[in-house]
Amino acid sequence: MEGFIALYIFMLAAFTGFEVISKVPVILHTPLMSGTNFVHGIVLVGAMVALGHAEGALEQSIGFIAVFLAAGNAVGGYVVTERMLEMFTGRKGGK
Amino acid sequence: MDASLLIQSTYLVAAALFIIGLKRMSSPLTARGGIVWAGIGMLLATLVTFLEPNLNNIGLMITAIVLSSVLAWVSGKRVAMTDMPQMIALYNGMGGGAAAAIAAIELVKGTNLTLTVEILALLGAFIGTIAFSGSLIAFAKLQGIIRKALRFPGLSWINLALFLGTVAVGVQIIISPETCICLLALFFGMALLLGALVTAPIGGADMPVVISLFNALTGLAVGFEGYVLGNPAMMIAGTVVGASGTMLTMLMAKAMNRSISNVLFSSFGESGDAGDNEGPSGSMKAVEASDAAITLTYAEKVIIIPGYGLAVAQAQHKLWELAELLEDRGVSVKFAIHPVAGRMPGHMNVLLAEAGVPYEKIADLDEINSEFDSTNVALVIGANDVVNPAARSNKSSPIYGMPILDADKADNVIVIKRGQGTGFSGIENELFFADNTRLCYGDGQKVVAELIAGVKAL
Predict the structure, then answer these.
(1) I need a labelling partner for B39 at 20 to 30 A (CA). Which of B86, B91, B384, B423 fits?
(2) Same domain for B65 and B130?
(3) Is the CB of B237 less than 8 angstroms away from the CB of A40?
(4) How do B412-417 and B437-441 pair as beta strands?
(5) Which chain B residue has its CA at the smallest distance from A36's CA?
(6) CB contact residues (below 8 A), chain A span 48-77, against chain B
(7) Does residue B224 share a domain with residue B87?
(8) pLDDT beyond 70 at B144
(9) How many structural domains are present in chain B?
(10) Which comes out higher in pLDDT, residue B203 or B319?
(11) Is the CA virtual torsion B105, B106, B107, B108 positive or negative?
(12) Same domain, B301 and B244
C-alpha cells in the first residue's frame, strides 16, 4: 500500500476514534472499553490470512496461536459487551 | 464476481459498521444495538476472508476458531458481572498476542519486506507483546491468582534496560539482511518480560487505567499489522481503537488525578507510606446493623456510595432492595458514583443497572457533591479512597487533589466494611475516624441483608 494513503487512513481513523469517545457518558465507559476491545478482534482476519499463507511447522504453529487468540478476543469481547449492554436496554424496555 | 473485489468491499462495510457500532455504543439508548452492528461487521469480515485466494491450512484455521470461540463464549457467558474487568483484560491480551503472532510469521518469512513494513511489523509486535503479557498479569492480579504486588528496588532500571535492549535487537533485525530466528525469539522474549514487569508492581486501584492503556495499545498493534498485511479494515479498526482507548485512558487517569506515566512508573503503595506520617486521630466506632437501620429509616435523605467492595460482595441486588424499602418509608435515596469507583469507570453503573436501579437515582460526582450538606446519612458500602477527605486536605497524601465524594459533609456517615484494614491503595482514611462516622463490619451482602431486616422490623 502506498505510504501516504496509509498515513491518511491512520490519521482519519485516529480522529474518528477521538471523536467517538469524547461524547460518552461515564455510565458507558466500561461497556465501551469492552466494545473497543471487541472491535480490535478484527485482528482475526489478519491472523487467518497469516495462517493461510503459513508454510512449515513453525509458521503454522504461530499462525494457529494467532487465530486461536484472535478468535477468543473477538468472541469473548462480543459476549461480555453484549451482556453488559443488555442490562441497560432490558431495564429501559421494562419501564 | 472477483473474489478480491468482494473481500475489499466487505472490509469497507465492516469498517463502517465498527464505527457506527462504536458511535451507537456511546449513548445508553442505542448502546445495545451498537454492539450488534459491530458484531455483524465482524462476522461478515471473518466469513469473507475464507474466500481469500490461495488460502492453506483451512482445517487448522477452523479448528482454532471453533476451539477458541467455544471457550471464549462459555467463559464470557459464565463470568459474573463483578469479574468483567479481568475478562476484558484477558480478551484484550489475546488480541495483543494475536497481533504479535502475525508479526512473528511475517518476520519469520522475512521475504521482500520493505523497510516501512518491517519497522511497523516490529513496532506492532513490540506493542502487541507488551499488551499480551501485561494484560495477562492484570488478569491474574484482578482474579486473585497473583496477590502480591511485585516490587523491588531497581525495577525501573531493569525495565529501562529491557526496553532499550528490545529496541536494539529490533534495530539489529532491521539492518541484518538474513534474520536469525534466535534474534526474533530474543526480541519477543524481552518484550514479554517487559510487559509483565511493568504491570507487576501496579496496585489494584490503578488497574483500570492500565487495562484501558493495554486496550489502546492492542488497537495500535492491530493497526500496524493491518498495514503489514495490506488490510485496511484492520488499519481502520485498530487505529480507531488505539485513539479512543488513549482518550479513555486519559479520562480515567485524570479522574484519579494521576498521569499515565505516574501510574506506570511509580507504585501507589510506596508513595503512600511516605505520606502517612501523621495518621488520623480519633478511633473507629462500630455500630450494629439494627442501630444503623434505625438511623437510615428516620433520615429524610440518604446518599449511597458504592465501591469495589459492593462488587466483591455481590450485594447490588440487596442494596437496591434496601433503597426501595427506605423509599417506601418516605426516605429520599440517591446513589452517588465516583468516576473511578470499582475497578473501571462505569463499573458501579453497570452493577447498579444489573440490579435494576433507575438512571435518575444515580448521580455523578459533580451533580451530587453540593447535596451532601443537606443529607442526613451517607451510606458508604465497600468504597474507601473515593471518600477519603485526605484528597482535599492532606498535601502529602498520594491521592491529594483527586476529586472525591464529600461524604464527610453529611450529618451521619455509615460505612459498611469487611474489616479494619486500609483499602486497596493502602492509605488510611480519616473519614472512618470522624466523630459522625459509624462502621458496620461484615460482608457487604450480609450487612445489607441485616439492614433490610432491621428496617422491616421497625
Answers:
(1) B86
(2) no
(3) yes
(4) parallel
(5) B241
(6) 48-55, 58-60, 62-77
(7) yes
(8) yes
(9) 3
(10) B319
(11) positive
(12) no
Whole domain around residue B129: which residue ranges? 82-270
**Which pLDDT does position B259 carry in this prediction?**
74
**Do residues B364 and B337 touch, judged by C-beta distance below 8 A?**
yes
- Of B8, B138, B218, nearest to A40 (Cα)? B218
Domain end point (choices B78, B99, B117) = B78
Residue B299 has pLDDT above 80, yes or no: yes
- Is B137 among the domain residues? yes
Residue B243: all three cell numbers together: 485513539
Provide the pLDDT for residue A92. 42
In a domain, A14, yes or no: no
Q: Which of A11, A19, A39 to mutate to probe the B interface, most B CBs <10 Å?
A: A39
Cα separation, B399 vs B203, whole angstroms: 14
The reply to whether B179 and B316 lie within a common domain is no
Task: Examine residue B278 and state whether it is found in any structural domain, yes or no.
Answer: no
Per the domain annotation, does A20 fall within a domain?
no
Say if residue B109 is in the same domain as residue B246. Answer: yes
C-beta atoms of A69 and B94 within 8 A: yes
Check pLDDT > 50 for residue B277. Answer: no
The pLDDT value given to residue B274: 37
Strand partners of residue B142:
none
Same-domain pairing of B251 and B349: no
Q: Assess whether B262 and B312 both reside in one domain.
A: no
Position A1 scores a pLDDT of 61
Strand-pair category, B332-337 with B377-381: unpaired
Q: Name the residue among B77, B87, B101 with its Cβ closest to that of A66.
A: B101
Q: What is the pLDDT of residues B347-378, one digit of tens each?
A: 788 888 888 888 888 888 888 888 999 999 99
In a domain, B282, yes or no: no
Measured distance CA(B82)–CA(B310) in Å, rounded: 9
Domain range holding A34?
26-86
Residue B267 has pLDDT above 70, yes or no: no
**Region B140-165 average pLDDT:** 84
Q: List CB contacts (< 8 A) between A21 and chain B.
A: 26, 243-244, 247-248, 251
C-alpha cell at B87: 475478562
Contact assessment for residue B344 and residue B310, using Cβ atoms and an 8 Å cutoff: no
Question: How many whole angstroms separate alpha carbon B199 and alpha carbon B265?
Answer: 10
The string of pLDDT tens digits covering residues A3-55 is 788 999 999 999 999 988 776 776 677 888 899 999 999 999 999 999 999 99
In a domain, A91, yes or no: no
Chain A contact set for B243 (CB, 8 A) = 13-18, 21
What distance in Å separates the CA atoms of residue B72 and residue A37, rounded to the nearest whole number?
14
Give dist(CA A48, CA A71) in Å, integer: 10
> What is the least distance, in Å, from the CA of B154 to any CA of chain A?
33
- Structural domain includes residue B284: no
Q: What is the rounded average pLDDT of the residues B283-299?
A: 86
Single-letter amino acid code for the residue at B17: L
Please say which residue of B78, B101, B117 terminates a domain: B78
Tell how strand B437-441 and strand B377-381 pair up.
Answer: unpaired
Residues 6+ apart with CB under 8 A from B67: A68
Buried b (16+ CB within 10 A) or exposed e, A74-95: bbbbbbbbbbbbbbbbebeeee
Q: In total, how many domains does chain A have?
A: 1
